[in-house]
Design goal:
Elements: E1 4-9, H1 13-24, E2 28-34, H2 38-47, E3 52-54, H3 57-63, E4 68-71, H4 78-87, E5 91-94, H5 102-114, E6 119-121, H6 129-139, E7 146-154, H7 159-164, H8 171-174, H9 177-193, E8 196-204, E9 215-222, E10 227-233, E11 242-249, E12 252-257, E13 263-269, E14 284-286, E15 291-294, H10 297-310, H11 318-333
Parallel strand pairs: 1-2, 1-4, 2-3, 4-5, 5-6, 7-10
Antiparallel strand pairs: 7-11, 8-9, 9-10, 11-12, 12-13, 14-15
């Protein structure tokens, strides 16, 4: 079988990350990139001389010989661009958040099904070493019944971060901090504990001139009966402080911490010491003026390519990605009520 041929639309920080990772994947080929910024395209063209550049997404879909499109554009464009790719008979890998609403997400899933293409959602934090170890531990029943979970996303985003791109901080294009900073954390909690059944939420905008919240707290109840708390903010002074999930179970307690869920900060599990051979080498994405979540896109792309070649499941697909959007709508729907 030929290498899986990729196109990338949206060549900002995360789009450039996709291009670099695809270029380094032995079973993939970087074929086409698309952006409205000619300067970005020119720089990427000199860096990757064999890649065709486009300023028109429609032209790229019509002309480029690609198998799958990576959609790395502002959040508000994810749905329509995914649907366009589906009707062009291309597989789709869409960055988080999948879309800004459940309705948009469901339309994406329907378009992919109707056109017999696959729709995938980027959830690279599922490949973090602490996440995989914790998932294995829970799947084996070593924690027993889960009582509580605490999630803290305490990050810094300077005013310059919001000013850097015209879509950031805009309700109709970004959605909110849950979509941008917290969606990976929600994905993991829903993956582990089931859908959110109840939420009681307070949000506010205290430190930025933006349309979305920069602070929020929510009390949650999950499908498996566990109760939890979620605290998120982009108001931490100067640099990111913490991104953590603490699980309190019948037979153990685990805290996954660091700034990006890349460390085990506490491990006390009955008759199961933390394995010595685990290598915690997960690192954050570096974007110059700020840091994002874990940089495991290489692991995700490698798994995705093998999944397409072998016609099997593995990487998060549309139905699974929808669960995070449902959780976000649940939390925001109960805000300040």
């Amino acid at each position: 079988m030929h290498k899986i041929r990729f196109g990338v639309v949206g060549c900002g920080h995360i789009g450039r990350r996709h291009v670099a990772v695809i270029e380094g994947e032995t079973q993939a080929e970087m074929v086409a990139i698309c952006d409205v910024d000619q300067d970005i395209l020119q720089k990427l063209s000199s860096q990757y001389p064999g890649v065709t550049t486009y300023t028109s997404y429609e032209r790229m879909l019509a002309e480029a010989s690609i198998d799958i499109v990576c959609i790395c554009t502002p959040h508000g464009l994810h749905s329509i661009m995914s649907i366009q790719a589906a009707y062009a008979k291309k597989h789709i890998l869409v960055e988080k958040p999948m879309a800004l609403s459940c309705l948009e997400s469901e339309r994406m899933i329907q378009a992919a099904q109707e056109n017999e293409v696959n729709l995938y959602v980027v959830k690279q934090n599922r490949y973090n070493a602490p996440i995989l170890l914790t998932k294995k531990t829970m799947d084996e029943g070593r924690l027993g019944r889960i009582f509580m979970v605490q999630c803290n996303v305490m990050w810094n985003r300077h005013d310059a971060y919001y000013a850097q791109s015209p879509w950031r901080g805009k309700k109709h294009l970004e959605g909110g901090a849950l979509q941008t900073q917290v969606s990976h954390f929600l994905d993991l909690m829903v993956w582990w504990f089931g859908n959110i059944q109840e939420a009681k939420t307070i949000v506010d905008t205290l430190n930025h001139e933006i349309e979305i919240e920069d602070c929020g707290v929510s009390a949650l109840r999950f499908e498996n009966g566990a109760i939890g708390s979620l605290l998120w903010t982009t108001c931490v002074y100067n640099v990111n402080y913490e991104g953590s999930i603490t699980i309190v179970g019948e037979k153990g307690t685990i805290k996954i911490g660091g700034k990006y869920l890349n460390k085990i900060e506490f491990w006390d599990v009955m008759s199961y010491p933390m394995p010595d051979e685990i290598e915690f080498d997960d690192a954050p994405n570096q974007y110059g003026t700020y840091q994002g979540s874990s940089s495991n896109h290489d692991k995700l792309i490698h798994s995705l390519v093998e999944q397409i070649i072998d016609s099997r499941k593995g990487v998060v697909e549309g139905d699974e990605g929808l669960k995070t959007i449902q959780a976000i709508e649940k939390i925001y729907g109960q805000a300040n009520g």
